[in-house]
Amino acid sequence: MRELEGKVAVVTGAASGIGRGLAERFAAEGMRVVLADVEVDPLQEVADALAARGAPVRAVPTDVSDADAVLDLATVTFEHFGTAHVVCNNAGVGGSSGPSWEIAQNAWDWTFGVNFWGVLHGIRAFVPRLLAQQEGHIVNTASLAGLTTIPFMAPYAATKHAVVGLSEALALELAMLGSPVKVSVLCPGFIRTRIHESERNWPARLGAPPPGLGNDLLAESVRATIAAGMDPADLADRVVAAIRDERFFILSDDDHAVLAQQRADDVRSGRQPRLAPPEAFGIPGAGT
Ligand SMILES: NC(=O)c1ccc[n+]([C@@H]2O[C@H](COP(=O)([O-])OP(=O)(O)OC[C@H]3O[C@@H](n4cnc5c(N)ncnc54)[C@H](O)[C@@H]3O)[C@@H](O)[C@H]2O)c1
Q1: What residues have CB less than 8 Å from 117, skipping those under 6 apart?
Q2: Ligand 1 centroid from CA 252, angstroms
Q3: What span, in angstroms and rounded, lies between the C-alpha atoms of 229 and 137?
Q4: Residue with CA nearest ligand 1 atom 17
Q5: By CB neighbour count within 10 A (0-12 exposed, 13-18 middle, 19+ buried), where does 67 fall?
């Protein structure tokens, strides 16, 4: 999709981080923007900030883990703007850390609910409408964690691999059906956001959060790395370029592809997956 001006973008997880960066960039392109997030006040703040710059925006409080809420998001979008062109299924949480067999069931449910089902709900709600209008581009946020192997964060890693697999299937299905609707999967390394504070959105309906959620040693090391990460605005530049160029995989650094290559080498040799070296993620000061 070369021309974005006047078109409609929908972004989930738009109240913070990557989603906010995408929404700001789409507005700067002259797009009309629908912002969705479970955090109502920050969502309205982003909507007000974009509206103050003259962007036509609509904020729709949405819990993406709720299929009906995402169907409602699509309905409101089409009622308000009459169409949607770019749909970013981006909302996500960092999940729980620890050995995979010890992570509580409700922590797995939370992470899959937002990171995987949230993306699938977006696909189910919007793709039929994009197919009908014969135009659109879906951008699903996975992670570099979906292309490589991350121990002690198994729910996060598993959901991100699932989003990559889902996005690949979707892209092939649309291509095989001859649809002009395109798909990209966003697989960033570390980006400066509030992902390490995801526990702020723990849903009460899942009961008490696991003890130590967001407060353990792993979270502490992730926190420092995230703080030194890429600016979401720079990632948004790459997303917009990928939409224009119809690129499927979107990385935050082209060199991260070496991790997918390492994985392919392990598959070929039958080797157990190797832990990606920290410097491969661009972690500052992590050289060997
Ligand atoms: N920050 C990174 O280093 C990084 C790297 C790779 C991938 N990602 C992915 O990027 C996406 C955005 O995360 P971020 O880093 O901007 O974090 P963030 O916490 O700054 O933003 C995530 C947004 O999602 C929202 N959200 C959480 N649960 C939700 C729900 N149930 N329904 C709707 N919205 C919900 C939050 O309120 C928040 O506004 C996630 O999918 C994350 O996994 C982040």
Answers
A1: 64, 65, 67
A2: 16
A3: 27
A4: 195
A5: middle
Which pLDDT score is estimated for 7?
Answer: 98
Cα 136 from Cα 233, distance rounded (Å): 22
pTM, rounded to two decimals: 0.97
CA distance 178 to 117: 26
Write out the two tokens for 276.
């990606």
- The DSSP secondary-structure symbol of 97 reads -
Atom of ligand 1 nearest to the CA of 193: 20
Can you read off the two tokens belonging to residue 117? 């089902």
156 is catalytic: yes
Residue 281 to residue 71: CA distance in whole angstroms: 36
Ligand 1 midpoint to CA 201 (Å):
10
Helices (H), the chain: 17-28, 40-52, 67-81, 105-111, 118-133, 154-176, 217-227, 232-245, 257-269
- Strands 57-61 and 86-89, bridge-based pairing: unpaired
Specify the length of the chain in residues.
Answer: 288
Q: Are 71 and 125 in contact (CB under 8 A)?
A: yes
Q: Which amino acid is at 102?
A: E
Superfamily name and number for 8-257 = NAD(P)-binding Rossmann-like Domain (3.40.50.720)
194 Cα nearest atom in ligand 1? 20
Three-state secondary structure call for residue 206: helix
Q: By three-state DSSP, how is residue 232 classified?
A: helix
φ and ψ of 195, to 5 deg: -60, -35
What pLDDT, on the 0 to 100 scale, is given for residue 285? 45
pLDDT in tens, 60-83: 999 999 999 999 999 999 999 999
Q: Nearest residue CA, atom 23 of ligand 1?
A: 13
What is the per-residue burial (b if ≥16 Cβ within 10 Å, else e) of 15-34? bbbbbbbbbbbbbebebbbb
